[in-house]
């Protein structure tokens, strides 16, 4: 036989019944004050008003109690014979009975209205709860964020400990705790695994817990464990929140799959571009070298001294070009693997630019190179070889796109603690929408009179990586007088502490 629910189950119930008693006392006091001003039969309306006030503010129990007490008080104090529960007039008996019936009906109706309002308020709170959680789920970008948000929100909504588990991968698959809210729930690993396999609310393995599995399109991905027994309303809320969480988990998994597919596609594109670049830009100088050396070996005696020098010059030029391509590939590998270490030293910028000009493209004799370094440019604390290589790469590009007899201009100034180096050409320029793309690996622009001399598309990417290692930037800007392009290097002028 079940236990009877106590009359005052909570402090809230006590307050409701206390409020009902206070209203009845206040009604009786007010009835004594106005008793001489109005017929005693009309006082029943005053007591009915009190019953309605109690019903509207409390519930069915307090309203019925107030109606019975009001009926007895009205009979005891205001119907003859006074101060007794006897009724002298038969008409008063009917009045009292109608009062009791009307008080009970109006109290019941008011209590039901109050209950309906409470239900609507609860429903609104639930909708608000679900909306808030849905908003958190929509911004969750990873599985861990979804699981942590679910545990936190459930714990706050249910006011009890909550844990979320996923199945760990490996030879010994065991449920792995991913999120905890409030206090950890003590449960042995073997029982936890049995709960996972059963996947039931109030599992036989742990009847004092609620366990709900999270199933997405790929299968069961997690399990929510809640301490204690849930009522129907709490269980419905929990299932709704878990359903939203599984949708969010599906979305994050799809995003991860798309990112992985994008990465695979980009990797394939990069590999194809690299193979294409190597096959073209490495084989071209090799073909020239092989052709020149074969001609010298087979027909060397029939060539004049000038022809032999030209062929040897071609071998040297193409070998240097091949060496630059290989150096660019090695530099890009070091940058990509994070193995580029700075070996700083004090360097004169004049020496860097002079050395870069000597190492620049074999076509430098077909253009004019002007340099301008202001006197206030100090010696700089940098990795000199890397800065020189960056300037060489920019000069190669500038020379490549500048028409014959054109001018390539190199300037350097000290600009408020930053060193600015500009390498400007007179080529066709770079469209504004492509000025950032040219620093991507293997990206080239096929335009200009010397477009056929384009390289691997690594030079600017390497240049940016080398300058970034010094905390600087490389950007493409409009050329001098609106013609061509200026590549601008900005490096902070650092002074070592020692």
Description:
Residues 1-9 and 448-453 have low confidence and may be disordered. The two termini are 88 Å apart. Helices cover 55% and strands 14% of the residues. The strands form three sheets. Strands 6-8-9-11-10 form a five-stranded mixed β-sheet. It has a four-stranded antiparallel β-sheet with strand order 2-1-4-3, sandwiched between helices. The chain is built from twelve helices and eleven strands. Helix 5 (143-158) runs antiparallel to helix 7. It has helices at 11-34, 43-57, 60-78, 90-139, 143-158, 189-198, 232-281, 283-299, 305-336, 349-359, 384-401, 459-468, and strands at residues 162-167, 175-181, 209-216, 219-227, 345-347, 368-373, 380-382, 407-415, 418-424, 473-478, 485-492. It folds into four domains: 11-119, no CATH class; 160-253, 2-Layer Sandwich (Beta-Lactamase); 283-334; 342-492, 2-Layer Sandwich (Heat Shock Protein 90), CATH 3.30.565.10. It is an alpha+beta fold and 498 residues long. GO terms for molecular function: ATP binding; identical protein binding; phosphorelay sensor kinase activity. It catalyses: ATP + protein L-histidine = ADP + protein N-phospho-L-histidine.
């Amino acid at each position: 036989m079940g236990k009877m629910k106590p009359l005052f189950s909570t402090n809230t119930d006590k307050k409701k019944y206390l409020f009902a008693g206070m209203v009845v006392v206040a009604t009786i006091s007010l009835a004594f004050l106005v008793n001489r001003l109005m017929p005693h039969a009309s006082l029943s309306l005053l007591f009915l008003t009190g019953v309605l006030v109690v019903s509207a503010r409390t519930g069915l129990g307090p309203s019925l109690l107030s109606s019975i007490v009001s009926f007895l008080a009205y009979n005891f104090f205001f119907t003859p014979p006074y101060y007794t529960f006897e009724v002298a007039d038969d008409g008063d008996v009917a009045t009292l009975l109608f009062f009791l019936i009307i008080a009970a009906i109006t109290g019941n109706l008011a209590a039901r209205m109050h209950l309906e309002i409470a239900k609507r308020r609860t429903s609104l709170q639930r909708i608000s709860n679900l909306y808030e959680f849905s908003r958190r789920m929509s911004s969750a970008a990873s599985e861990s964020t979804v699981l942590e948000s679910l545990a936190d929100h459930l714990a706050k909504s249910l006011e009890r400990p909550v844990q979320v588990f996923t199945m760990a991968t490996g030879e010994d698959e065991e449920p792995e705790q991913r999120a905890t809210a409030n206090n950890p729930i003590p449960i042995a690993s073997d029982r936890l695994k049995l709960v996972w396999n059963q996947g039931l609310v109030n599992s036989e393995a742990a009847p004092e817990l609620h366990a709900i599995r999270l199933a997405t399109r790929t299968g069961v991905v997690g399990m929510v464990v809640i301490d204690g027994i849930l009522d129907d309303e709490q269980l419905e809320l929990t299932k709704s929140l878990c359903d939203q969480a599984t949708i969010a988990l599906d979305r994050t998994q799809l995003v991860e799959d798309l990112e992985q597919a994008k990465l695979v596609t980009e990797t394939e594109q990069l590999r194809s571009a690299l193979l294409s670049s190597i096959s073209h830009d490495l084989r071209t100088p090799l073909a020239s070298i092989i052709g020149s050396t074969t001609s010298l070996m087979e027909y060397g005696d029939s060539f004049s001294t000038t022809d032999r020098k030209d062929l040897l010059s071609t071998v040297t030029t193409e070998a240097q070009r091949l060496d630059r391509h290989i150096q660019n590939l090695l530099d890009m590998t070091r940058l990509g693997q994070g193995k580029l270490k700075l070996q700083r030293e004090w360097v004169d910028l004049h020496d860097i630019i002079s050395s870069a000009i000597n190492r620049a493209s074999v076509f430098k004799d077909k253009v004019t190179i002007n340099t301008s370094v202001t006197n206030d440019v100090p010696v700089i604390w940098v990795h000199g070889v890397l800065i020189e290589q960056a300037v060489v790469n920019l000069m190669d590009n500038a020379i490549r796109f500048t028409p014959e007899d054109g001018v390539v201009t190199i300037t350097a100034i000290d600009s408020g603690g930053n060193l600015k180096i500009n390498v400007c050409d007179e080529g066709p320029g770079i469209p504004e929408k492509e000025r950032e793309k040219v620093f991507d690996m293997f990206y080239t622009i096929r335009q200009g009179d010397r477009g056929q001399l384009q390289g691997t598309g690594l030079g600017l990417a390497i240049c940016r990586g080398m300058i970034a290692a010094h905390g600087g930037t490389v950007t493409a800007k409009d050329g001098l007088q609106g013609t061509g392009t200026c590549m601008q290097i900005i490096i902070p002028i650092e002074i070592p502490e020692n």
